[in-house]
Sequence to fold (436 residues):
Amino acid sequence: MKKKALGFLVLSLSIQFTVVGQSIDKLITPKEATRIETVLSADDMQGRRTFTPGIDKASAFIESEFKGIGLQPFNGATNFRQEFSMTVSKAVSSKITINGEEIFNNQVVTFSYQPEVSLTEKSDITVVSINKGDNIGKKFNEYYNSTKSLLILVDESFKNVLPNIQQIDRITANPGENTILFVFGVSDATTFTIDLKNTITKKPLNNVVGVLPGKSKPNEYVIFSGHYDHLGIGSPQEGVPHDATDSIYNGANDDAAGSTAVIMLAKYFKKKNNNERTIIFTTFVAEELGGYGAKYFSKQLAPEQVIAMFNLEMIGTESKWGKNSAYITGFEKTNMGAILQKNLEGSAFKFYPDPYPEQELFYRSDNATLAKLGVPAHTISTSKMDNEANYHKASDEIGTLDINNMTEIIKAIAISSSSIISGKDTPSRVDTAQLR
Fold:
């Protein structure tokens, strides 16, 4: 009797999985992934750089997708645009002398959000140094994020990073009154004068946010996110080797792939129409400039109400383990990865811990703001960060993506998240005391 019952149960489960499989195969398809990716990574999006017509066009497309799916706006908004503004500083002129010698503009990078700045060695400004052999990335971040005025003397050995620092946008959500100056090739500053003039403006930005209300637990949120901005248009010599005229950074993998997944998951869960918890689908702006869209979004939610966040970043190429695999940043910080893998038992797909811990990816994407508030917020990716051929290059185009594998990844995310969305599983929280 028990054997017969067990046999019936196995048969029933088999039929159930087959039905689910057929359903998901019809809703999450390579054809649909190609359609969305083609639009978001097209040349006429101009690389989706923040503050350009291209980013506005991308936003309008995602908004139309959310509307067509039947999502609701977030938090009583009249549309899917979550609007906010940023302060932008543009240098008009600068004159800097150190020890009586005038410093050329191509030696200096300034960050200031005041219309006019006049400083000397007698002002409230501290002189610090980045010396040969220092960790330039760590030192830069420390000084760049300072709330004090700093004159940073950078050793000549780091002149190769000067162009990268010069390309950083002068943009902030909370402009301070301090001034940060990086001066390359100067080792001592006994006396100095600093005179700067800047144009300060407020510029609007928006995330795109849609909501699928939960049935029995509407005040518990599960978030699926990606960022829809990229790098815009560069110079032709930065393009792909086989086409020196290609200067559009299409960002097909980074992160049109993540935004495509968010749209496809929204359509899937809307069709399923069985989510007990509320699902929020969002594509963030200004990730490439410092994660400003995610930071603003995170402030609109009570973190204790956010049960989980799936941030989808660069899933268009195979992972280091090949097809049917992806990794989860901060895997060890919660049991969310274990829950996802358990829901995929019997399938060919596997989630792995982040294989690039030295790059601290857990802190470098749009999951970080909520994770630092204790939310089990993780990024899912396949990007080979030690050897991703098209990362931040004009060659990041749709033709370089494995759309079929990307579709399987999106299916795996949909299936593995099901017990969290149904309310059956609740991931453990991030221990904020253990975060750096």
About this structure: The CA atoms of residues 65 and 263 lie 7 Å apart. The chain has a mean pLDDT of 92. The first helix runs from residue 2 to 27. The first strand starts at residue 72 and ends at 73.
